Amino acid sequence: MSFAENLAAIQQRIQEACGRAGRDAQSIMLLAVSKTQPAELIDEAVRGGQIFFGENKVQEAKAKIPACPGRARWHFIGHLQSNKARDAVNLFEMIQCVDSLDLAREISKRCEQASKEMPVLLEVNVAGESSKFGYKPERLLAELKELNSLPRIAVQGLMTIPPFATNPEKARPHFRRLRELKAQCGEMLGLPLPHLSMGMSGDFEIAVEEGATIVRIGTALFGQRPRFGKNMEAM
C-alpha cells in the first residue's frame, strides 16, 4: 500500500477508536515516526497531508530536517543525551523524552541561549522495565514542581512506551496508569496537562481509548524501515 493509503487507514482506525471512547478524533495528533526514512518519503508524506514527524536520533535529524519540506513539524522522541540538548532545542518544537531533572535543566539552559521556550513531555517508565529509560512514577512526582519551575521548560504532559506484547490489550493497564498519573500531576501543579503521548503501530487504538492525545506511528505508515550500513544504524 502507498503512504497515502496507509495514512487513510490509520486515520480511520483512530476515528473508530475515538467513537468507542466517546472522543473527538480531532483531539488526536498523529505523529509519524520517520527514523531512517529518507527526505523524499517525508516530502511525499507532507504532500499527502501528514505534518507532524518524530525522530529519535539527533544526528540523523540534523542531517535530514534541512532537506525536508518547511511545513513539516518535528518532535524528538528518542533518548536524549545532555550533550545533544543544544541541537535538539534548535531542531525540534517538542521534546517528548525528558527523563531526569538534569536533562530538563540542560534543555532549559540551551533554550535560554536560543531565546525560546520548549514544550516537553516527561517520559515515564510505567512498567519499571530495567531495559527502558524514563522516570519511575514516584521520582517524577518528587521532582515535578522543580521541573515545572524551570524558566524555559513548558511541561505539557507525559509519555510512555509499554512493554512489548503481541496482544495490544496487555498495554491497556500501562496506558491507564499513565492517564491516572497525568491527572495526579495536574492536581499537584494546579493546572491540567494537555498531552499523553502513548501508543504505537501495534497498540495505538488501545491508547486512544485510554486517553492518548499523541500516537507515534512508524511501520504502520511507512512499512518496514529501510536498512542502511552500520554507520547509519548507529546514528
Q: Output the CATH class name.
A: Alpha Beta
Mean pLDDT: 94
Structural class: alpha/beta
In one word, what is the shape?
Answer: globular
Rounded radius of gyration (Å): 17 Å
Description:
This protein has 235 residues and is an alpha/beta fold. The chain has a single domain (3-233), classed as TIM Barrel. 43% of the residues lie in helices and 16% in strands. It is built from 10 helices and 8 strands. The chain has helices at 3-21, 39-47, 58-64, 85-91, 101-114, 137-149, 172-189, 204-209, 219-222, 230-233, and strands spanning 29-33, 52-55, 73-76, 94-98, 118-123, 153-159, 195-197, 214-217. The protein has an 8-stranded parallel beta sheet. Helix 4 links the parallel strand 3 (73-76) and strand 4 (94-98). Helix 4 crosses helix 5 (101-114) and helix 6 runs parallel beside helix 7. The longest helix is centred in the first third of the chain and has 19 residues, at 3-21. It is globular, with a radius of gyration of 17 Å. The two termini are 28 Å apart. The relative contact order is 0.15. The model is unreliable at 228-235 (pLDDT under 50).
Describe the structure in brief.
The chain is of the alpha/beta class. 43% of the residues lie in helices and 16% in strands.
